[in-house]
Design brief:
CATH architecture: Roll
Number of helices: 5
Distance between the termini: 101 Å
Radius of gyration: 32 Å
Largest sheet: 4 strands, antiparallel
Helix content: 40-55%
Number of domains: 1
Strand order of the largest sheet: 1-2-3-4
Strand content: 25-35%
CATH class: Alpha Beta
Shape: rod-shaped
CATH topology: Nuclear Transport Factor 2, Chain: A
Order of helices and strands: HHHHHEEEE
């Protein structure tokens, strides 16, 4: 009987020590890290950011498609850049600065602008000057193959010689090959808004 009590006491002591020790960190354990994601959330697959809440419908869906193709695309940064491009293009067109325009326009649009500058120079007319850019907002976006296209609706006041100041409402479509290392967008189309 004494042997049973001694064995029970030893077993109780061992169980007590296990109970006290288990669950404690001693600092020698490895850090617990989650297993790598599998399937669509694998680390090498970019996770697309959702389109901004202010862009709904076709523009929002198009922006989401552009972001999926180019995860670095930021609609707010793009809109700010589009405003700057608008001012630069209007200014270069007014001055007849073909060199500046060539870097900002697609070849087809550049040819059209160059022809208009040549015709204007022949008559001695002045080009339009930007008085005030009232607004610029993304109106549409889409992916066509590897080409991203984003359309921005501009409202501005332009001064045009004898005509005076007029309101201009235009939609400018910028495009970029998302595979290209060149981050610059080029003006590909201008239509009335």
């Amino acid at each position: 009987m004494i042997e049973m009590l001694v064995l029970a006491f030893i077993a109780g002591f061992v169980l007590f020590r296990l109970y006290v020790t288990l669950g404690r960190r001693t600092g020698a354990e490895r850090e617990v890290r989650p297993a790598p994601a599998q399937g669509p959330l694998a680390p090498d697959v970019p996770i697309a950011k959702p389109a901004p809440a202010g862009l709904a419908g076709v523009a929002g869906e198009g922006i989401a498609a552009v972001i999926r193709a180019d995860p670095s695309f930021d609609p707010d940064f793009f809109a700010a850049g589009a405003k700057s491009a608008y001012e630069m293009i209007i200014g270069a067109f007014a001055k007849g600065d073909r060199d500046t325009l060539q870097g900002l326009l697609t070849p087809r649009v550049f040819d059209s602008y160059a022809a208009a500058i040549t015709a204007r120079e022949a008559t001695g007319d002045a080009g339009p000057e930007l008085v005030r850019l009232k607004s610029a907002e993304i109106a549409d976006a889409a992916m066509q193959g590897d080409i991203a296209r984003v359309t921005v609706k501009f409202e501005a006041e332009l001064a045009e010689g004898a005509i005076g100041v007029r309101d201009a409402r235009e939609k400018w479509t910028f495009e970029r090959d998302v595979r290209s290392p060149d981050p610059n967008w080029r003006l590909a189309r201008v239509t009335a808004a």
